[in-house]
Amino acid sequence: MSANPLQAIESSEYFANVTFAGLQLLIPQNDIYSLEPTVDMTPCPDVIGTAGQLQQGNEMWSLYALSSDLSLFDSCPDSYRIAVLLKNVKPLYGLLCEQIDSLARNQISIHPIPTAMRNPTSPLLALALYGEEIRYISSASALSRLFPYY
Description:
Strand content: 35-45%
Helix content: under 10%
């Protein structure tokens, strides 16, 4: 896990725009290991909080499905068809999502989280203004705060 989660935001020229449950979350592209279809996911009923797992190379990745309020689903919603495997984190994990695309840093304006929204346990690191839309920014290391370790 990175010592400074904001460092990934500051050094990223591109962001993955991950969409799930109506939420659009930006993650620095240098935190993305790969994208995989959920058809390759296997159930993992013995690991609390995971929607499944995925074998990639010699590694097993726990997969998590998040709701719009960033709480965990215990199964993968039918509309979540993409597994976003994240890197620079231990244990290895991935997010399940409906859609993913890419945004260049010059397409967004990054702003700090307002004081009223700050929470030291939140994975939200900053806000991004994209046109007239506001999106959240996080990183692989910051998102790992949401997941139970096994």
